[in-house]
């Protein structure tokens, strides 16, 4: 991603009620990245909690939208405009129902696959051409509504490996920044 500023967005819902939810995995990965950057998030006029820093020699802005997931697009577009970040330099980290728990997949562009946070971002940016890092949360059991499932905390067995999986996903972000998409895909797929 050259030396341009990267905007790394973690998707989630604000507030303590949602902290451990599967839907908040983007926020959880950003917390790991913030620990690596060495800083604290601060409220920003773009409508997100922002942390500016460097990671593996790359300039970046970490952003957690302060809106609910389905309205993430406004804060993401606001941060992209403020920091003059083109869509190709935006990385969005989000939960993915169609991947087994802990599986990480990277891609550039594509559809929203029913993910309302991605739909909102695509609409606000006016393009699908931004990077996505998808963190598998698996399908809900039985006939459980997917919306209810993603708003539940990770299960006890999942929590046993969650710190490792979040660390590995943060590694994928670093690899994308340092090595580019194809090399990062080869390493993490």
Question: Main β-sheet: number of strands, strand sense, barrel status?
Answer: 7 strands, mixed
Number of domains: 1
Overall CATH architecture: 3-Layer(aba) Sandwich
**CA-CA gap between termini:** 19 Å
Topology order in helix (H) and strand (E) letters? EHEEEHEEHEHHH
For CATH, the homologous superfamily is named as Peptidyl-tRNA hydrolase
> Strands of the biggest beta sheet: in what spatial order?
2-3-4-1-5-7-6
Shape: globular
Low-pLDDT regions: none
Rg, alpha carbons = 15 Å
CATH topology: Rossmann fold
Helix content: 25-40%
**Strand content of the residues, in percent?**
15-25%
Structural class determined from secondary elements: alpha/beta
- The tally of helices reads 6
What is the residue-mean pLDDT, rounded to a whole number?
95
Count of DSSP E strands?
A: 7
What is the CATH class name? Alpha Beta
InterPro entries: Pept_tRNA_hydro, Pept_tRNA_hydro_CS, Pept_tRNA_hydro_sf
Protein name: Peptidyl-tRNA hydrolase
Enzyme class: hydrolase
Site (Stabilizes the basic form of H active site to accept a proton): 95
């Amino acid at each position: 991603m050259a030396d341009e500023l990267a905007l790394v967005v973690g998707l989630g819902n604000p507030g303590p009620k949602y902290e451990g939810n599967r839907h908040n995995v983007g926020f959880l990965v950003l917390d790991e990245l913030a620990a690596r950057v060495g800083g604290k998030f601060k409220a920003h006029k773009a409508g997100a909690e922002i942390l500016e820093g460097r990671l593996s020699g790359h300039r970046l802005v970490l952003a957690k939208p302060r809106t609910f997931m389905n309205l993430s697009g406004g804060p993401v577009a606001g941060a992209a405009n403020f920091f003059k970040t083109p869509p190709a330099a935006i990385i969005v980290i989000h939960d993915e129902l169609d991947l087994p728990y802990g599986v990480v997949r990277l891609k550039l562009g594509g559809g929203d696959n029913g993910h309302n946070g991605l739909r909102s971002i695509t609409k606000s940016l006016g393009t699908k051409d931004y990077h996505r890092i998808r963190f598998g949360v698996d399908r809900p059991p039985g006939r459980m509504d997917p919306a209810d499932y993603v708003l539940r905390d990770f299960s006890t067995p999942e929590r046993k490996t969650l710190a490792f999986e979040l660390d590995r996903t943060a590694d994928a972000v670093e690899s994308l920044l340092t090595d580019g998409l194809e090399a990062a895909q080869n390493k993490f797929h």
